[in-house]
TrEMBL record, chains A, B:
E.C. numbers: 1.2.1.59
Organism: Halorubrum rutilum
Subunit structure, as described in the record: Homotetramer.
Main location: cytoplasm
Molecular-function GO term, any one: NADP binding
Protein's name according to its UniProt entry: Glyceraldehyde-3-phosphate dehydrogenase
Catalytic activity: D-glyceraldehyde 3-phosphate + phosphate + NAD(+) = (2R)-3-phospho-glyceroyl phosphate + NADH + H(+); D-glyceraldehyde 3-phosphate + phosphate + NADP(+) = (2R)-3-phospho-glyceroyl phosphate + NADPH + H(+)
SMART domains from the UniProt entry: Gp_dh_N (SM00846)
Gene name for this UniProt entry: gap
Amino acid sequence: MIRVGVNGYGTIGKRVADAVAAQPDMELVGVTKTSPNYGAEGAVRRGYDLYAAIDDRVDEFEAAGLGVAGTLADLLDAVDVVVDCCPSGVGERNRPTYEAHDVPAIYQGGEDADIADASFNARGSYEAARGAGSLRVVSCNTTGLSRLLAPLDETYGVEKARVTLVRRGGDPSETDRGPINDVVPDPTTVPSHHGPDVNEILPDVDVDTAALRAPVTAMHTHSVNVTLDEEPSTEAVRDLLGGESRVFLIPEGAGIDGAGALKDYAADVGRPRGDLWENCVWEESISVEGRDLYLFQNVHQEADVVPENVDAIRALATDASRAESVARTDESLGVGLDSLLSDGGAARSPLAADD
Amino acid sequence: MIRVGVNGYGTIGKRVADAVAAQPDMELVGVTKTSPNYGAEGAVRRGYDLYAAIDDRVDEFEAAGLGVAGTLADLLDAVDVVVDCCPSGVGERNRPTYEAHDVPAIYQGGEDADIADASFNARGSYEAARGAGSLRVVSCNTTGLSRLLAPLDETYGVEKARVTLVRRGGDPSETDRGPINDVVPDPTTVPSHHGPDVNEILPDVDVDTAALRAPVTAMHTHSVNVTLDEEPSTEAVRDLLGGESRVFLIPEGAGIDGAGALKDYAADVGRPRGDLWENCVWEESISVEGRDLYLFQNVHQEADVVPENVDAIRALATDASRAESVARTDESLGVGLDSLLSDGGAARSPLAADD
C-alpha cells in the first residue's frame, strides 16, 4: 500500500483525496486544511484524518469542533508520497518542507515546470517520468490538450496545432473572481503559456495557443485546429478519439448543448460531484478539411487532472506500467464515459447497420 | 407498497424518481420521457423502466438504443399514484388522461392552483390535504416561504410578511434562458403571485412578495422581512428555525458566502447531484429589530420540492400522519442538514459553555 497525504483540501485536493481513497493499492493517510471552514467539515464527514496545514492553528480547529490528527509535519512523517494541492505558488513555498522530510512530492500545474523533476500526463509522458523524485501534473488545460494531441501525433503526425482556449473565470464557489459580462484576452500576448506547457509533455509537437477568459464557472472550452501530416477521414478521427479512455465523445442528438447540460448528464450517470474526468469532445464538431482537423472540446477544470494525479503517484512510487496504472485508475474511479446514445440510430456503425 | 409513476423525467422528475426509489414503502414503477435524449439515458443507467410519454415515439426510443417498457397509458395502468413533473401547463393537458385512468395525480407548482383538490406543503398543509383526490405541490419559492412562515406564525404570530425574491434565471442546463447581465422585475407588477400562492398553504398569513430575476442558475435568494405579533430575541428565532428539519442554518465563519459555495458544501457532505432539500438561511442574517424580523435565505429550485412530493404521495395514498411521513422521508433521503460548525467555538450553546 502506498501511503498518501494530500496537502491542501480545496477544489483539486478534495477530489484527489477521494480518488486516492478509492484505489486498492493506496491508503489516504490524511489531508490538510489551513482553517476550519466548510471544506474541513467535509473532510471530517468523509472520515478523513485532518491535519492543520499551519502549526499554530491547531487550537482554531479544536475550538471549531473539528479535531485534528496533527500538523503537516506529522502527516509528512507518515506518508510515502505527498500530493500538493495548494493554490498556485504555495507549492513552491512548500517544497523545502517536503525535501526536509524526504517525501517525494507531486505538484499541480499552477507551479512552474522547474518545481519538479518532470511534468506529467499519463497519456503523454508516463514512461518519461520514471525515476523522477518529484512530479508536476500539468494544468487542466494542458492535460486536455496533451490527451488530444498525443494520439493524433502518434497516428497521423501533427504538423502544427492552433488552439483558442476560452477559459472559465473561476470555480463555482469563487464568488469574487471575474470577468463579469466580458470575454477578456488573458494573457493578451499570443501565444499563451499553454503551448509551451504542452511541450513539457510532448516536446516535439508544434502548438500555439491563444487564451481568453469568460464569465462562466463550469468548464473551459477549446476551439482546436490541428494541421496533420496525413489526411484521415473525419470518421477515422472520430474513431481514434472515441477509443481513448479519457476522451468522451458527446453524441449528436443527445441534447447536450453546453457545459450546463454536460454537468447535468454527469450527475445523471452518477458521477460524484458531477465530475467529468474526461476531455469532452463534441462529436459532430470533429471535421477534417484536407489535412486540417477542427473540433470543440470542453475540459472540467475541477476534475480532469484527478486521475492524472493518481497515475503520477504510481509513476513515482511503483514499477507499474502506464497501461497497468491507467487501467487500475480508470476501473476504480469509473473513468471512460461512453454514452448509450453514441451509436443511436445506427447511423455510423457498420455492425449495427447489418442488424 | 405504493406503486408510483413519474410522468416527465426532467429537472424535478429525475429527483422525485430517485427519492421515490429510496422510500421503503414505495415502488418506482417507471418514468416517462418525450424523446431519447441524455436524460432518458440517465434513467436507463439507473435501472428505471422507461415509458414513451408520446405514443408514436416508441420507435424513436428503440432506434436510439433505449428500449421502452411501454407508453404513458401502460404506466398509468400499473400505478397507484402518478407524479406529474412535466413543464408548466403540460400538467393541465395531462389531467384528463390521469382521470380517464382513474389514477390519483400529484402536480407541480407551475400549474394553476385549481388543477388539484388542494395545494400541498408538508410543513404548512399536510393534514389539510387529507382526503384529496389530487394534490399540487407548490413551487420551490412558495415551498421555501411556507416552511419559513409556518413556524413563525405558530410561535409568534405573523402580522405581515414582505419578501423580495431574487430568482434564478434558469436551471444550469437551460442555456437559452435569460436574463443576461441584468436584474429584471418579473413580474413588474407588485405584489407578485407568490404571496397569494403562499395563501394556498397558509390562508391566514398576510404576505406580499416582489419578484426579480437575475442571471444566475444555482439558487433563488429571498430577502425576508416579517413583522411579528411578538418581540422575540434574535437568538430565539435562530433556535426556532434551527429546530426545523427542512431549514438549514448556514453557520457563521464556515466560508459559505453564496450559492456556489453552498452547492460545493452540498457535494462535500455527499448530497446526490449537490442537492439542497432544505431552505438555506444565513444564520448571521437573522436579526430582530423590535417586532421586525429580517433574514436572507436561499432556495435550491431543483431540489426543495422533492421531499414535499414524497410526502404528498403519502398524504394522497396512505393514512400516515404528517410527522410519520416527514420523518420517514427525511430519514430515507438524509434531509436535515446540520453543520458540524454550527456551534463552533461554543459561542451560543449553553450546554457547550458548561463543558
